[in-house]
């Protein structure tokens, strides 16, 4: 009998999640049934959508999220002992996965760890996983940047934003990123952003005008709020906007208040589209092929903010929401 631990959400979040909003539950896993595997979890993801989707679930609920794990016992020949699996089984140290469960959307189906070609397995829940799918397809298929165009990214030092900016550079664009500290600004420029701006200290409209005197062609929005309203006001005719998130309002709804420049959207005929990874998850092999090649060649430099220990998953989550991470926040168990 295997004892497992998992994080259970017992309260709806008010502001930033609090430790008392969670309970760590220890329980015995049942024997495997046909089509199931026992997994020892090795890597766990913490992401903004876990905060955003809190009230879409009935409490109490098991904290959802992506993970990479090692198969220790199997009743599915497709996943032999010693193989690894990527799943959306949440914050736990052991779990049983029904490998044939197709009841959820494509993005949440378990799948074999792809050939990492020597790269860290953690990238399967980062640049080669859901954040990578979001960045790659959200930029290339919604914003559709052309070489020579100007792309602006908010939340540019996060898991998705840092990938978006680098992919845009690979495609020949001028890239401007907004981040929340001078250290993050420095890092973004080190990985190839043409200009990075600290939105906490800069006059956003003036700084963007100076950085992009000919206007903005594509905007990849991770934050919402007044920052995004300022960017939208400077987008060129026919500009494209990929709306990925609104993290500025997840813990403080008042931060989303602002006068969205709808007249600019109208007269400039802007294309604004919300994006979600599950739309393209069945095409992740395209992302994996391109991004693996770019990483191995040095064109793409995914950064990970690694926290160690099952007991520290909550701290990693809240730290990510407060912007403490550079790149993808992951937890190593």
UniProtKB/TrEMBL annotation:
Domain of life: Eukaryota
Family: Belongs to the NADP-dependent oxidoreductase L4BD family.
Location(s) in or outside the cell: Cytoplasm
A GO molecular-function descriptor: 15-oxoprostaglandin 13-reductase [NAD(P)+] activity
Every Enoyl reductase (ER) domain range: 15-331
InterPro entries: ADH-like_C, ADH_N_2, ER, GroES-like_sf, MDR_fam, NAD(P)-bd_dom_sf, PTGR1
EC class name: oxidoreductase
Oligomeric form and interacting partners: Monomer or homodimer.
The keyword Cytoplasm is annotated on this UniProt entry: yes
Alphabetized Pfam families for the sequence: ADH_N_2 (PF16884), ADH_zinc_N (PF00107)
Chief location: cytoplasm
GO BP terms, alphabetized: prostaglandin metabolic process
One GO cellular component term: cytoplasm
Keywords: Acetylation, Cytoplasm, Fatty acid metabolism, Hydroxylation, Lipid metabolism, NADP, Oxidoreductase, Phosphoprotein, Prostaglandin metabolism
Name of the protein in question: Prostaglandin reductase 1
EC number of the protein: 1.3.1.48, 1.3.1.74
Gene3D superfamilies linked: Medium-chain alcohol dehydrogenases, catalytic domain, NAD(P)-binding Rossmann-like Domain
Enzymatic reactions: nonan-2-one + NADP(+) = (3E)-nonen-2-one + NADPH + H(+); decanal + NADP(+) = (2E)-decenal + NADPH + H(+); 4-hydroxynonanal + NADP(+) = (E)-4-hydroxynon-2-enal + NADPH + H(+); 6-trans-leukotriene B4 + NADP(+) = 12-oxo-(5S)-hydroxy-(6E,8E,10E,14Z)-eicosatetraenoate + NADPH + H(+)
């Amino acid at each position: 009998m295997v004892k497992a631990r998992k994080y259970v959400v017992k309260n709806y979040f008010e502001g930033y999640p609090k430790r008392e909003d969670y309970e760590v539950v220890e329980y015995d896993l049942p024997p495997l049934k046909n089509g199931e595997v026992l997994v020892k979890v090795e890597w766990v993801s913490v992401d903004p959508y876990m905060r955003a989707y809190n009230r879409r679930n009935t409490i109490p609920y098991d904290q959802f999220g992506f993970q990479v794990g090692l198969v220790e016992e199997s009743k599915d020949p497709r996943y032999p002992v010693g193989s690894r699996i990527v799943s959306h089984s949440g914050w736990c140290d052991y779990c049983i996965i029904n490998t044939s469960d197709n009841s959820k959307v494509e993005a949440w189906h378990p799948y074999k760890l792809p050939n990492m070609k020597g790269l860290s397995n953690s990238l399967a829940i980062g640049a080669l996983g859901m954040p990578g799918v979001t960045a790659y397809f959200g930029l290339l298929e919604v914003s559709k940047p052309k070489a020579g165009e100007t792309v602006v990214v908010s939340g540019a030092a996060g898991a998705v934003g840092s990938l978006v900016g680098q992919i845009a550079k690979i495609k020949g664009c001028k890239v401007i990123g907004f981040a929340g500290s001078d250290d993050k600004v420095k890092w973004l420029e080190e990985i190839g952003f043409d200009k990075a701006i600290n939105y906490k200290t800069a006059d956003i409209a003036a700084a963007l005008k100076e950085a992009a005197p000919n206007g903005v062609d594509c905007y990849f929005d991770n934050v919402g709020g007044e920052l995004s309203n300022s960017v939208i006001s400077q987008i060129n005719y026919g500009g494209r906007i990929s709306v990925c998130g609104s993290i500025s309002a997840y813990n403080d709804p008042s931060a989303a208040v602002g006068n969205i420049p709808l007249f600019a959207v109208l007269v400039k005929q802007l294309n604004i589209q919300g994006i979600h990874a599950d739309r393209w998850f069945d095409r992740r092999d395209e992302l994996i092929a391109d991004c693996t090649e770019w990483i191995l060649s040095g064109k793409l430099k995914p950064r990970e903010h690694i926290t160690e220990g099952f007991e520290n998953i909550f701290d990693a989550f809240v730290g990510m929401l407060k912007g403490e991470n550079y790149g993808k926040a992951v937890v190593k168990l």
